[in-house]
Amino acid sequence: MRTCAELEPEALSRLPTLFGKPVVPFGLLPPSPDGARAAAVRDGDNDAVMPWLDAQPAGTVVYIALGSEVPLSAELVHELDLRLELAGVSFL
Predict the structure, then answer these.
(1) 90 in helix, strand or coil?
(2) Do residues 6 and 31 lie in contact, with contact meaning Cβ atoms separated by under 8 Å?
(3) To the nearest whole number, what is the mean pLDDT of the chain?
(4) Contacts for 53-60: CB closer than 8 Å, 24+ residues apart
């Protein structure tokens, strides 16, 4: 499991009972040297995103972090998009 005892001690102590087997935390991914947001700002990715986010009512945008270890197929990304759209939530 990608976490560490220092970050989630209570959860890690409960997981072996929940799953019925040992759970081994193997740490977190190291942060980007300049941070992901800094890279996005540098590359201009936030030019359209931040004003759109700022214009949305509080609590109405869904954030989904998919990670990078197991990329989704294009078909699954389209399915996720469709389900979010049908749910009527705002997303990028």
Answers:
(1) strand
(2) no
(3) 78
(4) 53/92, 56/90, 60/89, 60/90
Task: Please give the C-alpha separations between residue 30 and each of 33, 36, 76, in angstroms, as whole numbers.
Answer: 9, 12, 27
Cβ neighbours of residue 14 under 8 Å, at least 6 residues apart? none
What residues have CB less than 8 Å from 63, skipping those under 6 apart? none
Q: Which of 33, 28, 36 is nearest to 69 (CA)?
A: 28
54: tokens are 């700022």
**Can you give the three-state secondary structure of 38-71, one letter per residue?**
HHHHHHCCHHHHHHHHHHCCCCCECCCCCCCCCC
Residue 28: strand pairing partners = none
From the list 37, 7, 52, 42, the residue with the least C-alpha distance to 25 is: 7
Single pTM value for the model: 0.44
